[in-house]
Amino acid sequence: MTTTRIVTGHDEFGHSQVISCGPLPGSEEFTHSRGFSAALVWQTPAVPALVDQPIDPALQMSSVVPAPGGTSALLVTFPPDALAGGADFDPVAATEELCERLPGLGERFEAEHPGFHRTDTIDYGVVLEGEITLELDDGRTSRLKQGDLVVQMGTRHAWRNTGNIPARLLFVLVGAKRPEPLA
For residue 28, what are the domain limits? Predict the structure, then answer.
């Protein structure tokens, strides 16, 4: 499915206009993770500015994980677990591709526990299509279906698609600071 991203701004007279309109860059399927896709929709710094001619943040992004106060919107498609692996699956190549396409996030995935990761963010997730299972520590799970919402508070988690169709989610990550441990 092709997703169109429209970005608005202002012309020289202050009138609203479409600055860009086209396919969401980076939304194509990953090469080494069959059926998986993840694209940065937009990103803002801790103090975003309203500018007349916004520039695609992906062109200057160093990490999809936002700094405290910043935001990142990601559109992610999770294939059914049964399709994601396969005899020709190369976990090293898949990890390298994940780190390349989602810098700052790919490096947070745990090699010894596939799929598990944790970020210093508050995440708002919306299930747009399909169903997905959120797995937390100790095997705790929650099943989400189309229209369901999840708010994650920097928790260690993994996503599992045990169904037969892809699950498509929109995530908005808000950069946060983790509290200092009590002495």
Answer: 4-175
- pTM tops 0.90: yes
Asked if residue 181 belongs to a domain, the reply is no
Contact 135, 143 (CB under 8 A): no
Q: Is 2 exposed, middle or buried (0-12, 13-18, 19+ CB in 10 A)?
A: exposed
Number of domains in the chain: 1
Distance CA 169, CA 160 (A): 12
Q: Which two tokens stand for residue 78?
A: 């999770």
CATH of the domain at 75: 2.60.120.10
Counting every residue written for the chain, the total comes to: 183
In a domain, 183, yes or no: no
181 token code pair: 């441990």
Q: What is the pLDDT of residue 86?
A: 67
Give the number of other Cβ atoms within 10 Å of residue 172's Cβ: 17
